[in-house]
Amino acid sequence: MNMTRKLILFTVLGIAVGAMAGYLYYSCIGCVSGTCAITSNPLNSTLYGAFMGGLLVNTFVRPPKK
């Protein structure tokens, strides 16, 4: 498997898992008062989780050797 395809695959998986985790955080914990910028809205929480999931996965994927 090409390294670029592997990197894209892991990034997409990280984004998907992060988005699910962000939405689960909103639905289970969330923000009761509605004043929290990220967790008061399901869209914001899901997008933030997707962003953080993508970043987290990319920290563990090594770049190809030249």
From TrEMBL:
InterPro entries: DUF6132
Pfam families: DUF6132
Protein name stated in the entry: YtxH domain-containing protein
